[in-house]
Write a structure and sequence with these properties.
It holds the Pfam family Sulfatase. Keywords: Calcium, Hydrolase, Metal-binding, Signal. The protein has ten helices and 15 strands. With 454 residues, the chain is of the alpha/beta class. The chain has one domain: Alkaline Phosphatase, subunit A (3-Layer(aba) Sandwich). The longest helix is centred in the middle third of the chain and has 31 residues. The chain binds 2-acetamido-2-deoxy-beta-D-glucopyranose (NAG) (3 copies). The site of one 2-acetamido-2-deoxy-beta-D-glucopyranose has 6 residues, from loops.
């Protein structure tokens, strides 16, 4: 069978070199390694996440089930405790003779994953050393080589571990002959934007621009707004007296500084990814290894005045996804069909020729192995096939008493914010706290909520 290299990148927008020209984005992203992988992958360009928050999104794509099934809508709940003893994606490979191993940030760490879900892995999950690098001293923090001497950035530690691990499975290595499922989770470009200072050189200050829409849409329902909670923690943001309320904006210099730092963080992660993919090549394992790469959700860098995810805007729920299937996608396959991260589990199982995963029944709490997604492998042969006419995301508000359910079709994004019962996981569609409708044909940046236009 084929090995699987499963890569997750935190808060990665579909704003990468190979996407250039598609949106009002930075015109010259420097992501040569992601671009090279994309050039030999099935590129899912209209891919959406189930919830724009790490824990719920990761729990969903790692179990192949939607947030109302995993019952995880926050970063504090563990699906095995609150929903069911589901077989995860790495665990499924493990159960089929693979050696599964993970490093960095794959599940949301801590109690919300029972400390990286030990049942998923054949060996102890690897966590890089953190030192002070996770603290919110500053949101924009270019570091010098000297500053990282005693303690490397976590993503460097994760890439180092991935390289060491690949060597164990290479010809002549101690695990030679065993298939691996290796999950490598990079933590940047998540806030705070901490990266080696030289990555700023890729983005000259004069080339950084302000977002064109630093405001919420017209007729925007208050309930839909997601406060930029993480940004507000940073020592370089607190003195600005910014509260993060809808239509409040940061000073322009700070917006430019943050956008530049986000781009530099993306290029830093791209560089670490390149080190891992180069090693895969050097060891001669590319042709026998499926590689998937995803962003766990999108991110706003000043658009709508937002700094984070935490909502249902397209910018928060649209995220990169690609799958490299050696022999089948070597020249790159671009698909604009609608897809969701919940589809990745059955897709990788399909690509690896493991026994297929069946669709979950409505109540799947007692079903160990099933999925609420669908394999995307048919798109390799027919990239514009309409596997799905609509895809779904959601975001809770008011301590989970309101749930924003959002549906994306090729043309529209439609969202309703009904009252929600978090015990029975049921919305009350008769009690709406807000409605949004954006017409992407006329308004790709979602600046006009036209829900009230008959
Ligand atoms: C969950 O399933 C695993 C096997 O997949 C089993 O070892 C474990 O005991 C189960 N846990 C519970 C609480 O049932
Ligand atoms: C925010 O600003 C936009 C553009 O000026 C305006 O259309 C909208 O009504 C404002 N919304 C709120 C909630 O202030
Ligand atoms: C922030 O508020 C404090 C206290 O009200 C004030 O002293 C300071 O000048 C304000 N800073 C800015 C940038 O407005």
């Amino acid at each position: 069978g084929k090995n699987v290299l499963f890569i997750t990148i935190d808060d990665l927008r579909p704003e990468l070199g190979f996407y250039t020209g598609e949106r009002s984005i930075h015109p010259d992203m420097h992501t040569p390694n992601i671009d090279a992988l994309a050039s030999r992958s099935l590129q899912l360009r209209n891919n959406y996440v189930q919830q724009a928050l790490c824990g719920p999104s990761r729990t969903s794509f790692l179990t192949g089930r939607r947030p109302d099934t995993t019952r995880v809508h926050s970063n504090s709940l563990y699906f095995r405790e609150v929903a069911g003893n589901f077989t995860t994606l790495p665990q499924y490979f493990k159960n089929h003779g693979y050696h599964s191993l993970g490093m960095g940030k794959v599940f949301h760490p801590g109690s919300s994953s029972g400390d990286d879900d030990p049942l998923s892995w054949s060996q102890e999950f690897y966590k890089p050393e953190f030192c002070s690098w996770l603290e919110y001293e500053q949101c924009v923090w270019p570091v010098t080589a000297k500053e990282t001497e005693d303690c490397p950035l976590p993503d460097v530690g994760t890439a180092d571990e991935a390289i060491r691990s690949l060597q164990r499975f290479a010809p002549g290595g101690e695990m030679d002959g065993t298939n691996f499922f290796m999950a490598v989770g990079f933590m940047k470009p998540h806030l705070p934007f901490i990266f080696p200072e030289e990555f700023l050189d890729l983005y000259p200050e004069e080339e950084i621009s302000l977002p064109t829409n630093p405001f919420v849409p017209s007729e925007y329902p208050e309930v839909a707004w997601g406060n930029p909670q993480l940004l507000l923690r940073c020592g370089d943001v607190t003195p600005l007296n910014f509260t993060g309320a809808a239509n409040e904006t940061l000073p322009e210099w700070k917006q430019l500084e943050l956008r530049r730092a986000y781009y530099a963080s993306v290029s830093f992660v791209d560089h670490q990814l390149g080190r891992v993919l180069d090693e895969l090549d050097r060891l001669g394992m590319r042709d026998n290894t499926l590689v998937s790469l995803l962003g766990d959700h999108g991110f706003k860098i000043g658009e709508h005045g937002g700094w984070g995810k935490f909502c249902n805007f397209d910018l928060s729920v649209h995220a990169p996804l690609m799958v490299s299937v050696p022999g089948d996608t070597d020249h790159g396959v671009i698909s604009n069909s609608l897809t969701e991260l919940v589809d990745l589990y059955p897709t990788l199982v399909d690509a690896a020729d493991l026994p297929p995963i069946t669709l979950c029944p409505e109540d799947s709490s007692d079903v160990d192995v099933c999925t609420e997604g669908a394999s995307l492998i048919p798109l390799v042969a027919d990239p514009e096939a309409e596997l799905k006419s609509k895809v779904f995301s959601q975001y809770p508000r008011e301590r989970d008493t309101v749930m924003g359910y959002s549906m994306r079709t090729r043309r529209y994004r439609y969202t309703e914010w009904p009252s929600f019962d978090a015990v029975t996981m049921t919305p009350d569609w008769n009690e709406l706290h807000g409605v949004e409708l954006y017409d992407h044909e006329n308004d790709p940046d979602e600046n006009q909520n036209v829900w009230n236009d008959s």
